[in-house]
Amino acid sequence: MTTIDPTAVAITAPGRPKVWTIWITVLAAGLLVGFGSFIYQWSQGLGVTGLSNTITWGLYIVAFMFLVGISAGGLIVVAGAELVGTHRFEHLNRLAVVCSVAAVATAAGTILPDLGRPQRAWKMLVQPHLTSPLVWDMAVLGVYLAIGLIDLWILTRTPVPAKALRVMAIVSLPVAVLVHSVTAWIFGLLVARPFWNTPLLAPLFISSALVSGTSLVVVTAYITERVTPFRVGDQAYAGLRRLLLWFVAADVFLLFTEVMTTYVSGEPDHRNQLDILLTGRLAPVFWSEVGLGVALPVLMLLSRRGRRSTTLAIAGVLLVLGVFAKRINILFAAEFQPLVGLAPGIPGGRPGQQFRPDEIYLPSWVEIGVLIGMTSFFLTIVTLGVQRAVLPHHDADT
Amino acid sequence: MIVTSAETVTVVPAKAPAAGISRRALLTGGAAIGVAGAAGVAVVTDQDIGAETVLSLPVDKVVRTTCSPNCTGGCGQLAFVRDGKVVKIQQAADYPDLEYNPRGCMKGLSYHLQIYNRDRVLTPLIREGERGSGEFREATWEEALDLIAEKMTAIGEQHGYDSIHVFGQVPGSGYVHKGANYRAAATLGLTHGTSFDLNGDLPMGMPITFGVQNAEHEAKDWANSRFLLVVGANPLETRIPDAHFLFDAVERGARLVVVDPTFSSTASKADSWLQITPGTDAAFALSLAQVIVADGLADLGFMRTYTDAPLLVRTDTGKRLRESDLTGGEPESNRFIVWDKATGAAVPIPLDVLGIPDGIDAALEGTFEVDLADGTTVAARPGFVSVVEELERWTPEATAPTTGLDPAMVRAVARAYATESPAAILMGAGSNHWYHGDLQGRALALCAALTGNIGQSGGGFSVYVGQYKVRVKWGPWVNVGEDKAKTVASIYFIGGPTPGMHPDVPYPAAGYKGLFCTFANMFVQAPDVNRLYETLDGLDLIVVVDHQMTDTAGYADVVLPATTWYEKLDLTATPLHPFLQLQQPAIDPVGESRSELDIWKELIRRIDPAKYEQFWQVDAEDAIRMMLAEGGPAEGITYEQLQEGPVRLNVADPDIPFLAQIRDLAPFPPVSLPAAIEKTAAFVPTGRIEFYKDEDQFLAAGEQVPTYKPPFDDAANPPDQYPLRLLTPHSKWRIHSSYGNNPWMEEIHGGKPPVLIHPADADARGIGEGDLIEVANTRGRVVAWAHVTDAAKPGSVTLHEGWWPRTFKAGKGVNELTSSAVNPIHEVHYVPNMWAPSTGWKDCNCQVRKV
Amino acid sequence: MSDERISPIEALPAASRAYGTIDVRSEHPRWGMAVDLERCVGCWSCAVSCKSENAVPLGMWWNRILTDGPALDTPATDEHGRHDLHWVPLACQHCDDAPCQKVCPTSATWTNDEGLVLVNQDDCIGCRYCMAACPYGVRVFNWGDAEYPVPEGTGMVATRPVGSVEKCTMCVHRLAEDQVPSCVWSCPAQARVFGDLNAPESRLVQLLGSRNAEVLLEEKGTHPKVSYLQPRRRRPIQVTAEEASS
Fold first, then answer.
1. ipTM of this predicted complex?
2. Is the peptide bond before B69 cis (omega within 30 degrees of 0)?
3. Which numeric CATH code is attached to C26-231?
4. Listed residues A320, A338, A356: the one ending a domain
């Protein structure tokens, strides 16, 4: 088995040194922007975001939900394949785990900029309130991150200890399910938000996670294939394609069930919040999600060119964006319509802001800056992981 | 896979390339240090509240004072002071009549924002640029006072001191400092203006009918009613501290009926709401009276005993018969005549006591032949006949097209009012702010008299509008020796003398050359402001005394910073409750502000040092003691008692008007302080409640008995072009324009004036909720925001008075459109603030269009 | 700075202090409140008093007076054209089963032994989970440095730090000195009644027993300690058939 010096080849080969440098520069710049935005926000207070007393959770929480979601695919693909006994994805293992780890680490970090007083975040560790789903989630994410790192360590041993891998697979699968369920329960256990307060929320989060997580693996693999000697192979792509189709089917089914139940027989509070998605302010996002984020990629995957890696990658990107849109829908549909929405509304929050019967939310540049930082952070870990964990162990002959 | 030219690829340990790693390490390391550093800084500077959840902060002291901005609340407040600043205001809730507690409202509770806000005037200001340009320079008191004194002296010597008009708004809000304005006018010969009438609040129906300035039941008496008829009044928004008495009454089983063109806050609590066409309250009241009489529900005994109903009126001249007509000569007391059915003759009845003497059966109907002293015979009828004749024109069916009310409902209301006793009528400015507001009041008074509800606890005809009432004998304070201030009704200041202006009005021969305006946003709140600005242009001197930089202050030549009532001592009272209260200073004057008394002392010292020496060596406490010493309602009340809290005046309990008249048959009218009784007794020469007025102007106008006349059309705004009635009620978020700049109020209401318009009117003009619209007539225009609601009555729009000009998209405010024509009936007599032209704000019509 | 400072309650004149004294207090009080929707005139005096007492910054309100209609102070109309206008004062309901408390990750939101749901500013990390969890929307957040309409601030209690959540405390600092909350004191219509739910002789308990009282969002199971006394039945003047036809 040969390994590849990632820098000796391709990227740093004569004629293509700039790509790597540009990439590093972009990541560094992104990290700086994120960090700067965060510090600015910390000094000024969260008022510099687009948040308000009505829309009190915004882009950060959307990103949190999303990132937790996309962390699924990796470990589940690895663990699932291990348990089922297929070797089709074995060479993608490390990549998948790197994706997961990057996503979990970023997700956990995303909570920090959302706090009004990040300097007190340690209180959650020292005096956690055990009835709070947020505390459960921090614990479970921590375990999940540990599992990911352990998995990565195992997978970068030569040879890979099969027994350890098996044990990890058995442990990580339920933990993965728990991660998404607990994240769902942050939202789903609140009587104040009928749209969230459904037993289907946890399964919905899991199915969305599977879709987005697997898509992430597809896209990352595709890009890595393009810029490094890493190879995926038709078999793996085919397998991922089939997985994606099944995951999307499950996701669509759960969504349909939710919408159908609420629409036809649901109680008014729940229905009101759903209507925001179907015909109200979020309708453009919802129907884009359905059209461009679900229908289109499915059609692409089912088409004649569906097995091509490029098609898969594009479909993957669309699916990921679709899931991101879904997070937006989930979060804001419940926030746009508070249960007690009588005139004149909820206090705006900042001087000069009157009461808001109706709320608009647009992320401010600070939030976008932090998001850029988080994205850079994620990509940095992925790059680091690909460079140090994936490529050196990639079996070029596979 | 891209490979190098080498055949095999060398094995290289998985180490990061040198350049990339070190850059990355640098970044990561730097970031880590940065985060740690920031965290450290944040932890160190982060406020540590401690385990105690809420800590109460101590204060230096608490001072009990009274909030008194001319809302008639007169609410005791506690000012909490810390480090010389008021940090909280809370109602004192210390009234010995516990049902009055706590009083207060959201505006008074946010007054400390007014004390310290950015519009507070802190130093004297002298105008630099053009009037209204807003260009002022700060000046010392010396300079400002010298300048004013100099200019006042110049005007005084050239035109006469009476060419300077002192406008001071209503006295009840502070007898010392409002009184100081009067005292100064008396000292220097300035003319003092009027406020109760200019505000449109003087309910002329009262002096016309009862001979008093106004007479109202104290608010707690509402709870004793079994039936409350609220006409053109919105106590939930305008008498907030007293509104609960309506609920107390209802809890005891009373019925609440509200008559209002708009579904107001008060209407929302009513058992029945009658959506009347604006300005037709008189027609409604007349139809109530008609039903009461026709159904035999009238208390004719009351009418005979207390009113001019039995007094004979000559059918030829329309004048009342006097004893001198029957006997000739000039009898000492020229008594009035009734027809005695027992003897079939016309007989005089006493003037010094009410009632009908025993043995006389005074007729209330019929026409009788009376022999006069000069040998002729004249046909005469009791005054009541004219009243009843008039009523027959105004059956519920006849008035329905005018009022828009269902006749069956009006009939039912009349029967309920007449039988669910005691029944009270509460009339508000919505009814009075009309050219014919006097007719509205007279018609409602008639209903009260017909049902015997005068002078009864839980009954009455009460008009609540302004804090006009002088409840102490303030003569020694406001007069200097024998000199009283010359008082000119301020409507004449704004619009000049009218042809019918009463000769008693001491209008200056040279016209007006100067204005001294205190505690009033006159240039925003006066009717027909564009006309007022024309008048102002003719003035040599405009001085404004205020603590807020209003648009009025912005148009002045000199602005003097005033103290608020948390910074000075004063004495206050209100018509709504009979408690005398002090305003006591909680803090030192803010900035360089001074009280009116201090300002006048300094001016008079400059203008007339001799009089200063003689009459102005007094301070606020002296003034209060002076007024208390005069007794009257304040008999036995000491300054020290007042320092402890509110003290009830010497009035009946409950304080109800006309008790001496109803119980002891004393003639009308009771005294209206501070007028001499002779002046007001002239309003009702019969000494009885008068529903028949035989003065020439009444006869000429056809208004000898209460009648209905449609809203006044001044011909400036033809109804076909200006089809919408513009209603301008008082907003609960302000006291007129006070608190218009209060940040807390603005957070609630949003700061953008809404114009209430019915969907039918809005749709016809393509106007939607929140659209920018123009409200205009030939006098002016404003641009504001539409609020489409079916609470409004089709055909009328509502724009609350008092919005500061800067809140509008365009225009100086709603008073660009309003005006005041002077009603000749209001000029029959002249007693300032008691019988004087009362502004008719709501006769205004306008057109609305989308901008 | 004066050395002679006293508690604002002790500084009250006797008559004023008597007005605000809590009527009955049992061994282990459980504080509650009733808001009389019939007597509420929508004046916001209680909301302003709260803002003043608790130094609530500009842009924030702990107490809001909601209009049950299409807009502020605007009546709702039913299909028969009948108007209805009434107000619903809303602040923290101090629920027995508070969803906000369950979700707080650091136990910053806690219930004291007299039933009041309070926020310990020391422990609040500003995650705003409680704001998402509150069905009533009564919590407000310190989005930045507090600003006051007067430079020195107002109020009787310490202010809260940037990045923390705050809400009605039922004036726990006044209860400690046997005085009713500020909103109860300042209602000019006496529409608010405060008392000890564990004291049957308290005016509050008697009122809850004799009037038609409801809680908001009862179906959510939060068991609020704030009740709303419903508006009264109206007694409109009836037009008899004979009157109508004549």
1. 0.96
2. no
3. 3.30.70.20
4. A338
